[in-house]
Each structure stands twice: as structure tokens, then as C-alpha cells.
Amino acid sequence: MAAAGEEADAASPLDRRLAPLLLFENDRKTADETHLASDGDATLFFYSIPSKQLMRRRVAEMEGHRYWTTPQGWLLMASRTSPVTFLWDPFTGARVDLPADLDGFLRGDAPIKRCLLSSNNPTVLWHCRLGNAEGGDDGGGGRWLKHEYDFAAAGGATLNGVLQAMQRLTSVGDKFFTSLINKVVALDFSPAGPQFAVIDTNKAAHRRPPSGCVSTTELVESQGSLFRVSFSSSDLHMPFVAGIGVFKLDLAAQAWVRAESLGGRAFLVHDGFGASLDPQEVGLKGDCVYYCMRNDKGLYVHDMERGTTTLRDPSPYLGNHCCTTKFLMPTC
């Protein structure tokens, strides 16, 4: 089928000119999808957001590794058969070796929401620091370091609340941030060890959704600032979003302030992921939020200036029930 494009060689990296991409992880296929890929076919489906083109590709590195996406474009790769871990650019094939996963925290079948978290013990952070071949206790490049923390130190009243917040951990400069109700938590990987700092945001403007609504939140780092993108609906199980709000963290005022624009940037957001791009560099529209929802193949584009949301259907041959989507970003 022409919409699916031609299958590339297994060793070929993806074309950076088509980035950012939506990656569809198709574990099951309906009858309508069998003509896109035969049973046992290890190809993946990619949708180019700028060119609106659906492609089918075999990517050898993705077949032999578990992988986690990042807003900076690099994938964290973990071999399925060895302790080898590395960062990998799917568009150029560039690779940055990481310490071996000798403890096996990246292997196993248990889900890992973010690469800094351990699936075996939820209040454990694994971290390493690049650029120091000698390693050491400061998180050098020689090995992964393990840090156990008390959930109360992360500003949470309950363990479950902290675990959900840590799934939204977002890097801003040399620190990491996440959000709780009326709080922002900063995480600093200092030489003395990871340290949490809790910032009270009780003064935040529009900090809660309207009465009777439910809200989900994702964090985005953009040009050195932290943004919160909130999606609200009248029912958590509804298949559509009723409202979108974007807020910028004002550290001096300790408040989330509503943002009327994105400063000309384009945000790409889905469950547990948020990234910011210069739209002119990648062929997107500025001041727009591009987002995906669970169990939904659609790509939604919310225009901040117009206050409208449009839907893109990457292909009528991909079913919602079998699609898990991830953004593949051009590397910074």
C-alpha cells in the first residue's frame, strides 16, 4: 500500500527530515491490518508528523533491545540478552555507551515508566553521569548508582501519589522536576547524592480543574522553563478531551501562571512524556500542542491562538485497540 511506504533496510537509520515521528507499537493486528504486515513480521509503523506520511520500517536495534524514549531524541537501549546499555540516536545511528546493567534493573518483564525508576522497588532511583570514565560515588560514567528514598522526602503524603508524580519527572537544566497537588518537587543529582526540594505552589493560578471535571497533567521543559499541560474531561474514561490548559511555573512567585502562548514553540505530549521543539526546524506549527491519548491512534493538534483542536488519523488500517504510540524526537 502506498500510504505505508517502502520498507527500509534493517540497518538503515530513520530519516531525520521526517522527524518528529509517531511510533506505533502494534502487538496485535485486526483483519484490516493484515495487508500492512504479515504474521511474524518484525516491522514497525512510523507516522511522520510534518509530512503526514505513514511508513513501515525494520529497525534492527529496536528488535533486539528494550527501549525508552526521551524528549531529547535519544533512546535508552537495554539489550534483551546481556547487561549492555547505551543511548542511541535512531536517525543517525550515533551511540553513547552507558555502564553495564549488572543489577538487571532494566531487564525483566515488569513495566518501567521512566528510565530513572526501578520496577522492583518503586522508591529507588538508578542514575549515572556521562563524561567520567573513572566512575565514582558521584554517579560517574563507570557504573549505575542506586539511591533509595523515603516518599515523604519527595513531598508526598502517600506512596502512590509520589509514584505517579515520579512518572512525570522532567529535566530542566541540571535538575529534574515533577508536580504534586499544590507542590513542585525539584530533584538535584549533586555529588553528595540525590536531593529533593519541595516548592509550595498554593498561590498558583488556575491550579485545579473546574468542579465536576477530572484532569491529567504532563510536564514539558521549554527553553529553560517548566510548563504544565493539563487535559480535562467530565469523565476519566471518556475518549476525548474537553479542555486544555497550559501553565508556566514562576519560581519567584511560587505559582503556576496560565500561558496564553508557547512562545512560538510546538509541544509534543503523551502519557508520561513532554517535549518542546522549534516548529520552523521540523515543519510543525508554532503555539500548538500535539498530543496522543491512551488506546487511541489519533494525533490531536490543539492551536493555542485559535483555541481549536483538530484530529489526524495516521491510517484507517491501524486500529485504536492495538496501538501504543510514542514520539521519536530529533536529537538535540
Automatic annotation (TrEMBL):
Top-level taxon of the source organism: Eukaryota
Family matches, as Pfam families: Beta-prop_KIB1-4
Domain KIB1-4 beta-propeller: 46-300
SUPFAM superfamilies xref list: DPP6 N-terminal domain-like
Organism: Urochloa decumbens
Coiled-coil ranges (or none): none
Name the record gives this protein: KIB1-4 beta-propeller domain-containing protein
